[in-house]
Each structure stands twice: as structure tokens, then as C-alpha cells.
């Protein structure tokens, strides 16, 4: 994602009111440019749109070492993969270990970081939407579509992770604590998500780069929303629209190229990063390695995930994990590998692994195909639909698993999603959506001496937010 961080110099009020101290809500003005005299033409509104992507991209915490900054998608793996049976820390360190042991505390700084990051993204989207009146008739629908796509994407993550959350669909004043600290029923959050994505589908096309919102990306995310809500036929219609050959999406012939040949036809939406840039690089992939980032390794593949990949991954396995070269019996995720691997034919993606340029893939065509199977299955235990089998077989054929299938069970679909999308932050959400999380996590916890309980399916509302709201914001059970 190019030229984004510089927008922070222009937009001096990129704060979201419900997640900041009062002293930060009314910063002393240090520039003559502010939201009141900005956003006067298409170029300036375009800058505001790019600033929304910047909020998701987050700050590289290895290059800009201020823990008060938002790190956006770069900390998402803690809240998803490490809170499942897929990954763990290498040495049980600090706050990160709370996720793998299912004992996350309300004071966890990574949870707070993610929560405030995505509400700040929502603020940035609302800021653009508030100023559409100054855009040209040609560009206004596009700006609206991108802003609403990103707002919906943010709320979809928040509602699945935290449950009922504050609903902020417009700019609010610093004193509007009723909106900022009132949790709204998830059904209302989903209503906004669906509406926003429908607008994005109507307003956008597929002609831009895949690190920008598009019609196909909005259709794919909405299909996943519909699957979550049990609206299977609507999901199937959207997915088959994306699958139409005229749309131009396809599986990469080589699994490795999905992650190391950026801008490919398989990726519908990615968060873009640039290598060797202090402002536009990411640090998460360095943190996944040993002695490259600040830590001794986080987001290591669990033995459970390794075993499943060894048995079912086909040619995907070698590009999903590798044994830690410094410590036998520990396994690093390699889908995003900044320092390369000559044995795997992966060249370094940056001169300094701590400033990695690997894009984060949010939605890709293999996910579309497997969701298509899910939509046809429609909550049933299995399917023999030839359309579902065709989609399923395409994913397996690319993995070198060419034995023909004649039926697909729910468990087989979940297994295929796990090995195809391993370490891409889907596993936790998949188990929730299929209604399997309670059983899977209970069994995994018992087998590994962890502390899972049913209340762990939701993260705590950050204690900092509760404190700022003087207790008006209620806490989730179990925290």
C-alpha cells in the first residue's frame, strides 16, 4: 500500500472518540490543515480513503516503537490463530501466551490494540462518508463504496470477536458517551454490515488493484457474512457470481505463488505492505521467526496443526510450516517469510526482515470455492452435489490430492479449510460459524493442559475502554 502514512500529517484528528483519553480528544492544533477545511475535492477525499486502509495496515512496531500507536491487522493472528488449535508461542512468553492457554485477561494490551485499531478504522471511514458532499458525481459512489466496504469489514471482525459492540455509523462528538459506550445487539451490527456491503457491491468494480476494495471483495465478504447468518442461498448466489469465468479469478497453479507473487489472480483482497519502508512495512512475519523480531517466536504451528498438515496438506505442507532451524520440535509458519528459504525456493522479501513487505491476504479464490461448498451444504451434514464436489476438487487438485471424491461431509470441509487456509486467521472463525468451536477447543484444551472454557469464545472488552466509560460499557461473561 503506497503513499498512505503521509496522510497522517494531513489528518490531525484521526482519533476515535470512544477509545481515547479526554486529553487526546481535543488535541492542540499544530497545523492549519484539519477536517473542517480539508476534504474539499476528489483528491482530498481520496486521501481520506487511503487513510482508512492505513488504519488497517497499522504501524510497524519494530520500526516505530510506540505501543500507543495502533497496529491494526498486524496483531490479528494473536486473537484468531493463537486462540485456536492452529498456533502457539514458542516459549510461552508474556501476554501472547494468554491466547494459547485460553486465559486472556481484560487488561491484555494486544486485545486493546486490536479493538481501538478497528474502531479507529471505523472513525476514518465515517469521516470520509461525512464529507461525500464535496466529491464529484463520478467519484462519490466509489468513495462511498470503499468506505462502507472497509467499515463493514471492520465491524465483521469486531462482532465475531467481541459479540455485542458499540454501533457508530457517523461522526460523534467527544461528549457522546451514550453512543461510544453502549453495546448494541449483534443483530443490529450485522444489519449495518450487510447494508454497507450491498452498497459496496453496487458502487464498485473489479478494475483496481487487489489491495483496494472491489465489487468481488465485497461480494466475497458478504457471502461469508451470509454463511455466518445462515442465509445460504444468498451466499451461493454471490459466490457463483465471483466464480463466473468472465470475472477473471482463478487458483494459482503453484500454491507458493499465492503468497510470493503478489497481485495474482487468486487474491480478491489483501492489505498491502511495502518492503524496507519504515512507514509502510509490517513486522508480524518477523515476529513469527526465531530471533528475527523482538521475541523468541510467536504464532508457531501447533503439533496438532502440523500433524493435520502432514496427513492432509499435500504440496501445501512445505509452504505452510517448517521446523525451526535453531530448535528441533518447534515449527515456524512460512506463508509469510521475510528472510527467504533457499530450500523452498523463496527469496528474501526485504533487505531487513523487520521491515517486511509481504501483503496480508484477507480473501482469496480458494476460500470462495470452499465457501461455495458450504453454501450448497446449507448447514447439513454432507452433500453429494456435483457443483459442490467440483469446487472442492479444484482446491484439492491444486494441492496434488487428485483422488476423486463423491461426497463431502461437514468435517471434511472443515478439514480442507484448515489445511488450505492454515495460519491465515480463518480457523477460529470457521469453527464458530460451523458450531464446532466448543467441542474442538474443549478437546484440544484437555489434551494439552490448557484452560479453555465456553466463555472464551468471546474476547473481553478491553478494561481500558470500560475505565474510560466509567463502567458504562459492560464486560463479557467470564472476565
UniProtKB/TrEMBL annotation:
One of its GO terms (cellular component) is cell outer membrane. Residues 76-227 form the SusD-like N-terminal domain. Its main location: membrane. Residues 305-479 form the RagB/SusD domain. Keywords: Cell outer membrane, Membrane, Signal. It is found in: Cell outer membrane. It comes from the Bacteria. SUPFAM superfamilies: TPR-like (SSF48452). InterPro entries: SusD-like_N (IPR033985), SusD_RagB_dom (IPR012944), TPR-like_helical_dom_sf (IPR011990). Belongs to the SusD family. This is RagB/SusD family nutrient uptake outer membrane protein. It comes from Polaribacter porphyrae.
Amino acid at each position: 500500500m503506497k503513499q498512505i502514512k503521509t496522510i497522517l500529517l494531513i489528518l490531525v484528528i484521526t482519533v476515535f472518540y470512544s477509545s481515547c483519553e479526554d486529553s487526546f480528544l481535543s488535541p492542540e492544533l499544530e497545523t492549519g490543515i484539519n477536517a473542517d477545511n480539508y476534504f474539499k475535492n476528489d483528491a482530498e477525499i481520496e486521501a481520506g480513503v487511503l487513510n482508512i486502509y492505513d488504519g488497517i495496515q497499522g504501524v510497524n512496531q519494530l520500526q516505530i516503537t510506540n505501543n500507543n500507536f495502533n497496529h491494526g491487522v498486524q496483531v490479528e493472528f494473536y486473537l484468531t490463530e493463537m486462540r485456536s488449535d492452529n498456533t502457539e508461542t514458542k516459549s510461552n512468553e508474556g501476554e501472547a501466551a494468554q491466547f494459547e492457554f485460553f486465559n486472556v485477561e481484560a487488561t491484555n494490551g494486544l486485545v486493546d490494540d486490536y479493538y481501538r485499531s478497528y474502531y479507529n478504522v471505523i472513525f476514518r471511514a465515517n469521516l470520509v462518508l461525512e464529507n461525500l458532499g464535496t466529491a464529484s458525481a463520478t467519484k462519490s459512489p466509489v468513495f462511498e463504496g470503499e468506505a462502507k466496504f472497509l467499515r463493514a469489514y471492520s465491524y465483521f471482525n469486531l462482532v465475531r470477536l467481541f459479540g455485542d459492540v458499540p454501533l457508530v455509523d457517523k461522526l460523534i462528538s467527544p461528549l457522546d458517551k451514550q453512543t461510544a459506550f453502549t453495546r448494541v445487539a449483534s443483530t443490529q451490527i450485522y444489519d449495518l454490515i450487510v447494508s454497507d456491503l450491498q452498497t459496496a457491491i453496487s458502487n464498485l468494480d473489479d478494475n483496481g488493484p487487489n489491495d483496494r476494495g472491489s465489487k468481488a471483495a465485497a461480494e466475497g465478504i458478504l457471502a461469508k457474512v451470509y454463511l455466518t447468518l445462515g442465509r445460504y442461498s444468498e451466499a451461493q448466489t454471490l459466490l457463483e457470481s465471483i466464480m463466473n469465468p468472465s470475472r477473471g479469478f482463478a487458483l494459482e497453479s503453484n500454491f507458493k505463488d499465492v503468497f510470493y507473487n503478489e497481485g495474482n489472480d487468486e487474491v480478491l483482497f489483501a492489505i498491502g505492505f511495502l518492503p524496507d519502508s519504515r512507514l509502510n512495512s509490517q513486522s508480524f512475519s518477523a515476529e513469527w521467526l526465531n530471533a528475527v523480531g523482538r521475541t523468541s517466536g510467536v504464532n508457531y504451528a501447533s503439533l496438532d496443526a502440523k500433524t493435520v498438515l502432514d496427513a492432509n496438506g499435500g504440496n501445501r505442507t512445505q509452504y505452510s510450516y517448517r521446523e525451526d532451524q535453531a530448535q528441533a520440535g518447534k515449527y515456524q509458519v512460512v506463508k509469510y517469510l521475510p528472510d527467504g528459504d533457499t530450500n523452498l525456493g523463496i527469496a528474501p522479501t526485504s533487505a531487513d526482515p523487520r521491515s517486511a513487505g509481504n501483503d496480508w491476504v484477507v480473501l482469496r479464490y480458494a476460500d470462495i470455492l470452499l465457501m461455495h461448498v458450504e453454501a450448497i451444504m446449507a448447514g447439513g451434514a454432507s452433500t453429494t452435489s456435483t457443483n459442490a464436489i467440483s469446487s472442492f476438487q479444484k482446491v484439492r487438485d491444486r494441492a496434488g490430492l487428485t483422488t476423486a471424491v463423491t461426497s463431502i461431509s461437514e468435517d471434511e470441509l472443515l478439514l480442507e479449510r484448515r489445511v488450505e487456509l492454515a495460519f491465515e486467521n480463518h480457523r477460529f472463525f470457521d469453527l464458530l460459524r460451523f458450531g464446532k468451536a466448543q467441542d474442538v477447543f474443549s478437546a484440544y484444551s484437555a489434551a494439552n493442559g490448557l484452560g479453555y472454557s465456553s466463555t472464551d469464545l468471546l474476547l473481553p472488552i478491553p478494561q481500558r475502554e470500560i475505565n474510560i466509560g466509567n463502567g458504562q460499557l459492560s464486560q463479557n461473561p467470564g472476565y
